[in-house]
Amino acid sequence: MNSLPNLLIGKTVAELRRHPDFVDTLIPDPEQVGDESYIEMTELGMSFVFPDGETVSSVHLYADGRDGYSQFRGVLPFGLSFQKSRSEIRVLLGEPVEADDGGVLPIIGAYNPFDLFLLDDQRIHVEYVNDLTSVSLITLGD
User: Fold this and answer.
1) How many domains does one find in the chain?
2) Measured between alpha carbons, how far is residue 126 from residues 30, 101, 129, 139 in Å?
3) Measured between alpha carbons, how far is 60 from 43 in angstroms, rounded to an integer?
4) Which of 28, 83, 95, 115 is deepest in the core (most CB within 10 A)?
5) What are the C-alpha distances in Å from 130 to residues 25, 70, 85?
6) Could you tell me if 129 and 52 are in contact, meaning their C-beta atoms sit under 8 angstroms apart?
7) pTM above 0.85?
8) Is the distance from CB of 50 to CB of 37 less than 8 angstroms?
9) Is pLDDT at 1 greater than 70 in this prediction?
10) What DSSP string describes 5-47?
11) CA torsion, points 53, 38, 82, 127, in degrees to nearest 10?
């Protein structure tokens, strides 16, 4: 399914800046963190990962309030919705290839429940609120 987030994977920073959906949006330079670079667009509810510093490998789409982001207001791919529960997402996308009910890891701390799906050769990582009644974050790509 071709939604805006899907179409951004593989784009360079320059291509993002020229994209018609971002014509009135200031896209900052990527911020280097360790071996990867990131662009955060908190008001738009999305962020990008650039493992090579130049090409988008992942797009993160946030529900309202997650990590200080506004909710992504665009069309979500594959019929996804932030209002769907884990069971509704699984009816929609099928059984995940990986799943976790959340927990706490040493050093890292608490993490949310998640499912990982592979659809049309694309990775879709869906994180849920702790009671599994809604989606808090969707990651497309690596």
Assistant:
1) 1
2) 24, 12, 10, 7
3) 13
4) 115
5) 33, 19, 11
6) no
7) yes
8) yes
9) no
10) HHHHTT-BHHHHHHSGGGTTS--PPPEEETTEEEEEEGGGTEE
11) 90
Indicate the helix (H) or strand (E) that contains 4. helix 4-8
d(CA 15, CA 62): 22
Q: Is the pLDDT of residue 37 over 70?
A: yes
Length of the chain equals: 142
Q: Hey, what amino acid is at 89?
A: I
**Residue numbers of the domain that contains 17:** 4-141
Residues 114, 83: Cα–Cα separation, whole Å:
15
Task: Using the predicted structure, report yes or no on whether residue 10 has a pLDDT greater than 90.
Answer: yes
Give the number of C-alpha atoms closer than 13 A to the C-alpha of residue 100, restricted to the C-beta side.
13
Nearest Cα to Cα of residue 119 among 96, 89, 98? 96
Beta bridge partners of 6: none
